[in-house]
Amino acid sequence: MNVEIPIAPLIESIETFIWPFVRIGAFLMVMPLVGGSFVPMRVRLLLAVALTIVIAPIIPSTATQEVLSAAGLVMVIQEIGIGVMMGFLVQLVFDAIALGGQVIGMSMGLGFAVFLDRARGVSIPVLGQLFMMLGMLVFLSLDGHLAMIQLLAESFHAWPMAERGLTPTMAAELLTWSSQLFVFALKIALPAITALLIVNLSFGIMSRAAPTLNLFAVGFPVSMLLGFAAIFLNMGVLVENVSAFLALSISAISQLLSL
Predict the structure, then answer these.
(1) For an engineered disulfide with 23, which of 5, 83, 208, 235 has Cβ 3.0 to 4.6 Å away?
(2) Phi, psi (5° rounding) for residue 68?
């Protein structure tokens, strides 16, 4: 007995999951914590499939393109761009935190103490890695991962699939937000840099008063100790700044989706 399997409904049901999977997968490839190279590709793939199964039934149905077509390729590129954009905006906050830690480390004389960043596969100063780990802990404590998943689900309502891609206005807003990286890093590093600058000026005055003083033997440990003290005393403000930056990044994603 020949059994006929209806192929057309099966393909349509698969396509309803393919398009959300493209956006969700691109988002997870860039999202902090999950997008790091220390997370196995299989874990990210399974997480993308799980989120797709949960989100796909609740998103509005829109007219999509065939997967194996030129229009389908264009739609894939659009969905990848949207997912990468959302993850990139949050990743910038963590890059700013790491940059602030690197600036402090260089001012303290710890620029030679580097550590392998497994998220990117490059070596960064230890203080930058410490600050990034602190940012990740704050991100998790504030349920930032849940907020990002919620924004991802809402993006399908605010920006339905196959309707439009990245516009020049959104690209300009994205570049404007990228410039905030240096502002965030400066706010994080400014208290410690100010304290270390005062210390260096004091040693400069001491060198004029006592030229025979070995500033390298005295100044290096003092700068390091005062730098750690400034970081410790500024830890509460650092957590507040990280929380504010994460809130601003989530708000920026909402604004971009409403353009």
Answers:
(1) 83
(2) -95, 70
| In 31-125, alpha helices (H) | 41-55, 70-108
Burial class (CB in 10 A: 0-12, 13-18, 19+), 123: exposed
Helix axes 235-257, 144-158, angle to 10 degrees: 10
Taking the alpha carbons at both ends of the chain, their separation in whole angstroms is 57
pLDDT digits (tens, 9 = 90+) for 102-111: 888 777 777 6
pTM of the model: 0.75
pLDDT by residue (tens digit) across 214-242?
Answer: 766 777 777 788 878 888 887 777 778 88
Q: Would you call 35 exposed, middle or buried from its count of C-beta atoms within 10 A (0-12, 13-18, 19+)?
A: buried
Quick: pLDDT tens for 136-191: 888 888 777 888 888 888 888 777 776 666 667 777 777 777 777 778 888 888 88
Q: Is 122 helix (H, G, I), strand (E, B) or coil?
A: strand
